[in-house]
Write a structure and sequence with these properties.
Largest sheet: 8 strands, mixed
Number of helices: 29
Oligomer: single chain
Shape: globular
CATH topology of the largest domain: Rossmann fold
Helix content: 25-40%
Strand content: 5-15%
Strand order of the largest sheet: 3-11-12-8-7-4-6-5
CATH class of the largest domain: Alpha Beta
Distance between the termini: 67 Å
């Protein structure tokens, strides 16, 4: 017998006998499955007479192994593929592989107790197991390590044999949803010939599946579903699940969008929300998040959205909201973001109480066959990372799908864990309706061409069982077609539409930003008394707790800063959060090592010495303070940044921050930046106030720990879409963070934060600077008469302090240093005003530490108001920085020499 089928002891008689003795002494000392087995075994001894107990044990044990085999591997032998033969697996579930023969088929075995049918013949036991685990539903769950979950799933499936028994009314509802799904697609296909719609055909059972999920979820207390999906079948889901009007969808086909401030996106990327009343009268809110064609990129956004809504609308009651992610089979197997999001699912900072994952498995990725698209057996094998159950279902069996969906919803509500539903179907057309799929899959598409749709299959089933009249399906089809035709005619009249937000309730009271909003910053000052009180409160550690000596010194030093009236960066940042929290705003920060801070400057969460007890100073401000959350994230940029973007989407009154461990590392999340942060407002009319903190600065640490790629963000700037800042003073970061919540609009903010400046002796600010005015977009360091200035140097970030040191060292009083603290929106008027003061200066220079082809220079060069400006920097390079600290120092020295003309010969700045 194969080791694959060993059940605990693999029928070792001595082990079995010991377990039997243990059970007699204490039934609770063995697993519940064995307890049931021994109960039946004791009963059997009284009825088998003269047969040896060893023979009985052996045969019963073999049947137990068979039961275990079906539970563990039955999913490999199901009838779940509607258009292809399943791959073969060995060994099979044939009884010979379990030490049983045909002579045993009519023998009664008490192992039947294990599956809830009592003592039964082997034939009956096999039939029961085959119906449960090898028909239209295949269940993967035996890898789950929590006995309660295992027993719950086994009992649910085996007691029902995974076979639905629905009422006539429920069957008619399934037929109605199938009718909507199928007729909607055929209507679009005939009315909008040649237009892309990425049809659901071949997987129309998704619509009754979602309907069942919402109906069952509402019965179990769910008040809101947040959905994410790519383009395949999206229009059908919008129309027949979220109840977006057919007229509006047809308008999008006919004429696009009205002229507006938003460019809009293609119709199968748009988000939408609605209130839905279930058949039992429960009101459920449904949201479908907008997303680009980057398939699974929306996943973390949905999770972040869900987390924010759970916190702010549902008092973090995980029963009230369920995220639903609809995947393609190729993308769930191939996209790394899926893994990142699944790894987040049970972490305190990111868990949303379990996501229902539905895979629309059409067994193909664009033109790639499934056997070329993954190495794993199933596209859903990533589910095993978190030991989540998976149900594989034949996409033609509508009732099996509804049954499995309801079971999955029950599991989610009971255990608050992810659950996966893999619906195996097919894609009737090519990748879009204009592609020819036979080019790459001729045999498959020959089979698909003659395969009836799911509605036809289900109608035939209902007719065969006599559960509906022949006219019902035809009436459903004709009535629905008439409705669609009516809405199509209506769509040809009236005004064109503009894309709207699917989060209107959360954004009530906020407005769109105007160009004039960026001329100056609002007053974000806080009184000296209030700052001093807050500063002492968050810097005084409780005396009854023993902290690490170095931590105590950090906070003692902060108290000393108040006395000296010289605050550093870390203290300024903490005061920004404290003042916002005192004003009842919420603050949420996540990223790798953010609690302490990569450079040990934050210490927002501190540990008691020799203990795991935590103390969070920013939670000690007052009874009515806002909520402060800070989480060290998993080692993910893509997933976590997407999550925080989603969180900020639904929580505009929270200062939501994602910090990169090093700014360079954000490039792992470039898709989120390009597809959501930089363009989300333009494409989807979605506002967002997310803050990205990216440590940036050239200090000889090599190409992966220097540059946060300022140039990439500036390249994406247009239409005031994002804010890009590179601050140089503690007071300015204080005002910048406060400004983010003290405006009547929201824009993403990218801050290039320092490393060396966190402890630079000159990077300090007085309390007066915190209490006066607000953020300074531009800072002029000019000293002396403007008429004496011969050279004006513009710069941004840490290099200012290098330039200042060199200027003071050589007493260059004819040089003025101007810092651009905000690079975008570009402070044109303020720059012009300052330059007019130095009108007699003959030399205008932009100085940066990055190579010439990087940093802000390509952006500065495009600014017409800075005509005549030249750049001094490192030479252009394909790599951001040198890996040699000595070479770095030599380059910096050469750069300073050229800026201040310290040598007569021409300086060559190496790459």
């Amino acid at each position: 017998m194969s080791d694959l089928y060993s059940y605990l002891s693999n029928t070792d008689p001595s082990v079995l006998e010991q377990m039997h003795r243990d059970w007699k002494a204490d039934p609770s000392s063995v697993d519940i499955s064995w307890s049931r087995f021994f109960e039946g075994f004791e009963f059997a001894l009284k009825n088998y007479g003269d047969q040896s107990s060893t023979v009985i044990e052996s045969k019963e044990m073999n049947v137990m192994n068979l039961i275990h085999g079906y539970r563990q591997r039955g999913h490999l032998f199901t009838k779940t593929n509607p258009v292809r033969q399943r791959r073969t697996y060995s060994p099979t579930l044939d009884i010979q592989n379990f030490g049983l023969t045909e002579n045993d088929l009519d023998v009664v075995f008490h192992s039947g107790n294990e599956i809830g049918i009592g003592p039964s013949t082997l034939r009956t036991i096999i039939n029961h197991l085959d119906q449960t685990y090898c028909q239209s539903i295949g269940a993967e769950f035996r890898y789950i390590r929590e006995p309660e979950m295992l027993q719950w799933l086994q009992q649910k499936m085996e007691s029902s044999r995974n076979t639905p028994v629905f009422s006539i009314d429920k069957k008619k509802r399934i037929l109605e949803k199938l009718n909507q799904a199928v007729v909607f697609e055929t209507f679009l296909h005939t009315k909008f010939v040649g237009q892309k719609r990425f049809s659901l055909e071949g997987l129309e059972t998704l619509i009754p599946a979602l309907d069942a999920l919402i109906e069952k979820g509402s019965e179990l207390g769910v008040e809101e579903f947040v959905l994410g999906m790519a383009h395949r079948g999206r229009l059908n889901v919008l129309a027949n699940t979220l109840n977006k009007s057919y007229e509006q969808i047809f308008k999008e086909f006919e004429s696009g969008y009205a002229d507006s401030i938003f460019d809009g996106d293609v119709k199968y990327h748009l988000g939408f929300s609605s209130d839905h009343t279930t058949s039992s009268g429960n009101l459920v809110h449904l949201s479908l998040a907008a997303n680009p064609s980057h398939l699974e990129a929306v996943n973390p956004v949905v999770e972040g959205l869900s987390k924010a809504k759970l916190n702010e609308s549902h008092k973090n009651d995980l029963d009230k909201l369920t995220p639903v992610l609809i995947h393609g089979d190729a993308s769930i197997a191939g996209q790394g973001i899926v893994y990142e999001v699944i790894q987040m699912s049970l972490l305190d900072g990111y868990k949303t109480g379990g996501t229902v994952h539905i895979v629309t498995n059409n067994q193909i990725g664009f033109t790639t066959n499934y056997i070329d698209a993954r190495s794993s057996t199933y596209c859903t094998d990533v589910a095993k990372v978190t030991l989540s159950p998976v149900f594989h279902i034949n996409g033609d069996d509508a009732e099996a799908i509804v049954f499995a969906v309801e079971l999955a919803m029950e599991f989610r509500q009971k255990f608050h864990r992810d659950v996966f539903i893999d619906i195996l179907g097919y894609r009737k057309h090519g990748h879009n309706e204009g592609d020819e799929p036979k080019f790459t899959q001729p045999l498959l598409y020959k089979a698909i061409a003659s395969h009836p749709d799911a509605r036809t299959i289900y109608t035939s089933h209902l007719l065969e069982t006599g559960e509906i009249e022949a006219s019902l399906a035809k009436e459903m089809e004709s009535h629905f077609k008439a409705l669609l035709q009516e809405k199509l005619e209506e769509s040809k009249n009236g005004n064109r539409i503009a894309p709207g937000s699917y989060l209107k309730n959360q954004w009530e009271g906020f407005r769109r930003a105007e160009d004039s909003d960026f001329n100056t910053s609002p007053n974000t000052g806080v009184s000296k008394d209030q700052l001093t009180t807050l500063g002492r409160k968050i810097s005084t550690l409780p005396k009854e707790k023993k902290f690490i000596t170095k931590i105590e010194k950090v906070f003692t030093d902060r108290l000393g800063m108040l006395d000296k009236n010289a605050l550093d960066w870390g203290f300024a940042e903490a005061l920004a959060y404290a003042s916002l929290l005192q004003e009842s705003y919420n603050v949420r920060i996540s990223g790798q090592d953010v609690e302490r801070g990569t450079f040990s400057h934050r210490h927002a969460v501190i540990k008691v010495e020799d203990s795991e007890e935590e103390y969070v100073p920013l939670k000690q401000i007052g009874d009515n303070q806002g909520q402060f959350e800070i989480y060290n994230s998993l080692l993910s940029e893509y997933g976590v940044l997407g999550f925080e973007y989603g969180y900020a989407l639904a929580s505009p009154k929270t200062l939501t921050i994602w910090e990169a461990q090093y700014g360079d590392f954000f490039n792992g999340a470039q898709i989120i930046i390009d597809q959501f942060i930089a363009s989300g407002e333009t494409k989807w009319a979605m506002f967002n106030g997310l803050v990205m903190m990216l440590p940036h600065g050239y200090e000889g640490s090599g190409p992966e720990h220097s540059s946060a790629r300022l140039e990439r963000f500036l390249e994406a700037c247009a239409g005031n879409n994002i804010q890009v800042a590179n601050c140089t003073t503690p007071a300015n970061i204080f005002h910048l963070l406060r400004r983010q919540l003290h405006r009547p609009f929201r824009k993403p903010l990218v801050i290039f934060t320092p490393k060396a400046l966190l402890r630079h002796p000159k990077c300090i600010s007085s309390i007066e600077e915190f209490s006066q005015e607000g953020f300074k977009e531009v800072i002029d360091q000019g000293n002396g008469k403007s008429s004496d200035i011969k050279k004006v140097i513009l710069c941004s970030g840490k290099i200012y302090y290098d330039l200042l040191a060199e200027k003071e060292k050589h007493n260059k009083k004819d040089v003025a240093l101007i810092r651009l603290e905000q690079l975008y929106p570009f402070p044109s008027e303020q720059i012009k005003s300052l330059l007019s003061i130095y009108s007699k200066a003959k030399d205008l220079i932009w100085v940066q530490e990055e190579p010439e082809n990087m940093g802000a220079w390509p952006f500065i060069l495009r600014k017409s108001e800075l005509d005549g400006i030249r750049c001094i920097s490192r030479k252009e390079s394909s790599s951001p920085a040198t890996g040699s600290s000595k070479e770095h120092a030599r380059q910096l020295e050469a750069l300073m020499s050229q800026v201040f003309e310290l040598k007569t010969e021409k300086q060559t700045l190496p790459a």
